[in-house]
Input
Amino acid sequence: DDGRTRALLCMGRAHTCVVLAGGGVSCWTRGARRPHGVLLDVAVREVHCGDEHTCAITSYFDVRCWGANEHAQLGVPGEGRGVVLVPLGGMVVALSATGNRTCAAVQPSPGQTDVKCWGSERHRVLGQSDTAEYVYAQSAKSIPLRDKGAGAVTRVTLARNHACALFDDGRVKCWGLLALLGVGQGTLGASTARGLAWDTLD
Output
């Protein structure tokens, strides 16, 4: 194992999911007396809940999502609810979901880590476009962090209006609505925790 703490339980707006000992997933919805199993053909390593969708990293280090898809939360076109494989083009090493969006740290090749996000593009949390309403995973551009001198991403975390990535050298970079990050900038861009140096997401 990679030694990293994994998310084995998550809660959305009206549902809760847990990874079972054998790698299966069970979820509860509001008012349900018993959990229902999620039909997956592969074991799950960790699970992350948005408001009305859930995504999981599997033992194949890919991502499967299910639930609502009105804002492209599942990363692919369609009405949603059923389990879908999210096309990310590499081994997924970290994942985070909240609200109507999800971000993943993806290794398309050894020594290279990209962060890709999909779903609702409100407050430019996905780092894509000022005009896009939502973004599918296949068309998502990588967050421009790698060319800023950072190392490999080991963890990614989403909040309602911003996101942050933790790198293997201990640095943290964030993007989204930076007025909510407590740093007094109030602009869109990316920040580095060391000394609060700034890199914009142009």
Q: What stands out?
A: Residues 151 and 167 are 6 Å apart (CA to CA). Residues 179-202 have pLDDT under 50 and may be disordered. The first strand starts at residue 9 and ends at 11. The chain is about 0% helix and 45% strand.
